[in-house]
Structure formats: structure tokens, C-alpha cells
């Protein structure tokens, strides 16, 4: 069974099932009740319900015939001008089924469209506004050209709270009759960072490893550094125990097979919780940004992270004197 099965299985199908985004749903509901939606732009972090809301709108408007009246395409796969002039324009030219006045085009990851494709899309939105409505979905609305933004109603989605993610996890646990430890639930909430799709995928992957989902299973399938290990590594380095810190780093990179970028990301999250002066945290974040850039440019992760720990040990030694 492929991943994202549970993400699709437990995806809401009605507006009132959308988790947390009440400020968006309330505005959208008015348009749906009037059965006349404008062109819309959904912007926000991944896994917060943007695509789900677009599909819920289609179900509310068209009922059982919603699939025939909606074109869902991903701009990251088809990002050039040809898809706008061909596939989308052909769909926009045809009349809606079931007596509906217009059809819907859901353009996912619209911020991946080239500038030329966005210009062509702007013209298509103007020409076929009587027969089709566009719902553009993106993570960064700043990458959408101003002429398109001015032609759409903009809806900004916010990251989900821990309570919302927990509610979604419990929905899946109950539906699939899973056994899961509380620490495993907390680990999923910590790792998914408000992304419900990632939460469902972690839960599904961990459930395949055993009858009861544990915290260690979650971190194993996530292939991500454990917060406790990273925190202990940083504290050892700051106290001058460079050898101990280096051993923890080697275990994460070599034994656990983690990528350097994953360790950097967890270091960044742990810095703010360390019992260090604010000045030390500022210096650490500044240094970490430099090492992250070097790794992204192709430098060896092991050497760069060891250099970061060495710098932290040197600074800690001076501060503790």
C-alpha cells in the first residue's frame, strides 16, 4: 500500500469538516451558498487544507457530478505556457455539466508557473470568466504576478495548531483501530510542523513496523534527527566535551544515515531551547546559517557540522571562563 493512502482516505469532503481554517471557510461558504464563486487564490504552508478546500467547494457546488466539472492540475509538473494555451484553455471552452453555470480549474502549486505562463493564464482568466472559475493554490503568494492577484479573492491559510494535528491523528487512530503510545503522538506532532499530510504519512509508515506504534518507530520512518540527541550534542559541545558531541554527530550521520540538512534543521530548532545567554544563541544561529549554506553548495556535511561543533566548543570555552 502506497503512502498518502490515509491522507486521501481521511481528507474532508465537506466544508464543515475542514480543520482549523474557520476564517477561510466562513468567507468561502458565502460564495458557495450563492453558487457564484470568484477566481480564488489559496496561499499558505503545505498540508493545511488548501487543495482539500478546493475539492470541497466542487463537491458542494456540483454534487455527484463534481469530477466532470473540475480540472485539477499540478503546475510543478506542467509549468510552461503550453499547458495554459492547450489543456486549460480547452477545458475552459467547454460548457459545464448538470446545469451548472461554470466549471472549476484547480491549479495546484501555481507559484511554480513561469512568468510567461502566468501572463497567458491572466488572459485566459479574463476571456473565459463566464464559463470557468480558477482556484490557484500556492505556498508563496509573492511568486504570483500582481495582475493575477488583483483578479482573485485571496485566502491565506495558517499553520495548524498542535490540538488540530492531534485531533486529525486521533481520527485516523480510531478509524484504523491502531495502538499508539502518547510519546509517538507527540513525536508526530513535533515532526509534521502543522502539515496534516505529513502526519498521516508518518502514521501510516510507522504502523507497518509493528502492532503498536512507538516513538522510536516514528523517528525511524521520518529519517529525522531525534531532538534529545541533538540537544545533548549541542550541550556537550558548549561545555567543551567536543569528543562526546562528535560521537553523537557521527552516530546520526553514519549509523542512522541522516542527511546533513536534516541535522542542521533540528539544530536550528533546538538552539532556542538551550540554557544559553541570548548572545550565544544569536552567534549560533548566525554560524549555523553559514554552515547550512556551505552544505547546500555541495560541501561535505560531516566536515561542516564538525566545524560548527568546534566553533560552538571554542565559544563555550571562552564564555565559561
Topology:
Blueprint: H1 5-9, H2 22-33, E1 40-43, H3 50-62, E2 70-74, H4 81-93, E3 103-108, H5 115-127, E4 132-138, H6 146-149, E5 153-156, H7 162-176, E6 179-180, H8 182-192, H9 196-207, E7 212-213, H10 215-222, H11 227-238, H12 242-255, H13 260-271, H14 278-296, H15 301-320
Parallel strand pairs: 1-4, 1-5, 2-3, 3-4, 6-7
Features:
321 residues, alpha/beta, Rossmann fold, Helicase, Ruva Protein, domain 3, Zinc Finger, Delta Prime, domain 3, 5-stranded parallel beta sheet, two-stranded parallel sheet, 15 helices, 7 strands, 9% strand, elongated
End-to-end gap: 57 Å
Instruction: Classify the secondary structure makeup into a structural class.
Output: alpha/beta
Major sheet: size, sense and barrel closure?
5 strands, parallel
Q: Please, what is the oligomeric state? A: single chain
DSSP strand content:
5-15%
Strands, total number: 7
In short:
This protein has 15 helices and 7 strands. By secondary structure, the chain is an alpha/beta fold. It has 3 domains: 21-156, Rossmann fold (3-Layer(aba) Sandwich); 162-222, Helicase, Ruva Protein, domain 3, CATH 1.10.8; 227-320, Zinc Finger, Delta Prime, domain 3, CATH 1.20.272.10.
Structure description:
The protein is α/β, with parallel strands linked by helices and 321 residues long. The protein has three domains: 21-156, Rossmann fold; 162-222, Helicase, Ruva Protein, domain 3 (Orthogonal Bundle); 227-320, Zinc Finger, Delta Prime, domain 3 (Up-down Bundle), CATH 1.20.272.10. It has helices spanning 5-9, 22-33, 50-62, 81-93, 115-127, 146-149, 162-176, 182-192, 196-207, 215-222, 227-238, 242-255, 260-271, 278-296, 301-320; strands at residues 40-43, 70-74, 103-108, 132-138, 153-156, 179-180, 212-213. The strands form two sheets. A five-stranded parallel beta sheet has the order 2-3-4-1-5. A two-stranded parallel sheet has the order 6-7. Strand 3 (103-108), helix 5 and strand 4 (132-138) form a beta-alpha-beta unit. It starts with a helix and ends with a helix.
Amino acid at each position: 500500500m502506497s503512502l498518502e493512502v490515509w491522507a486521501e482516505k481521511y481528507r474532508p469532503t465537506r466544508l464543515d469538516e475542514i480543520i482549523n481554517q474557520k476564517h477561510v471557510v466562513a468567507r468561502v461558504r458565502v460564495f458557495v451558498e450563492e453558487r457564484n464563486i470568484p477566481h480564488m487564490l489559496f496561499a499558505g504552508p503545505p498540508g493545511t487544507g488548501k487543495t482539500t478546500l478546493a475539492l470541497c467547494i466542487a463537491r458542494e457546488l456540483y454534487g455527484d457530478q463534481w469530477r466532470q466539472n473540475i480540472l485539477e492540475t499540478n503546475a510543478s509538473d506542467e509549468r510552461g505556457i503550453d499547458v495554459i494555451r492547450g489543456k486549460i484553455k480547452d477545458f475552459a471552452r467547454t460548457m459545464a455539466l448538470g446545469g451548472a453555470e461554470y466549471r472549476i480549474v484547480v491549479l495546484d502549486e501555481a507559484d511554480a508557473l513561469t512568468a510567461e505562463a502566468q501572463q497567458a493564464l491572466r488572459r485566459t482568466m479574463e476571456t473565459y470568466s463566464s464559463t470557468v472559475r480558477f482556484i490557484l493554490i500556492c505556498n508563496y503568494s509573492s511568486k504570483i504576478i500582481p495582475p493575477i492577484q488583483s483578479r482573485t479573492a485571496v485566502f491565506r491559510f495558517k499553520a495548524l495548531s498542535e490540538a488540530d494535528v492531534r485531533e486529525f491523528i486521533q481520527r485516523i487512530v480510531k478509524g484504523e483501530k491502531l495502538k499508539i503510545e502518547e510519546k509517538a503522538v507527540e513525536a508526530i506532532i513535533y515532526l509534521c510542523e502543522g502539515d496534516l499530510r505529513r502526519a498521516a504519512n508518518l502514521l501510516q509508515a510507522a504502523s507497518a513496523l509493528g502492532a503498536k506504534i512507538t516513538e522510536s518507530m516514528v523517528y525511524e520512518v521520518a529519517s529525522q534527527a531525534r531532538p534529545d540527541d541533538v540537544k545533548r550534542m549541542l550541550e556537550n559541545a558548549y561545555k567543551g566535551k567536543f569528543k562526546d558531541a562528535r560521537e553523537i554527530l557521527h552516530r546520526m550521520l553514519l549509523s542512522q544515515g541522516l542527511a546533513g540538512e536534516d541535522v542542521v534543521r533540528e539544530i536550528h530548532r533546538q538552539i532556542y531551547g538551550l540554557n544559553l545567554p541570548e548572545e550565544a544563541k544569536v552567534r549560533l544561529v548566525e554560524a549555523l546559517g553559514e554552515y547550512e549554506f556551505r552544505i547546500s553548495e555541495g560541501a561535505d556535511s560531516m566536515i561542516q557540522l564538525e566545524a560548527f561543533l568546534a566553533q560552538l566548543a571554542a565559544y563555550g570555552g571562552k564564555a565559561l571562563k
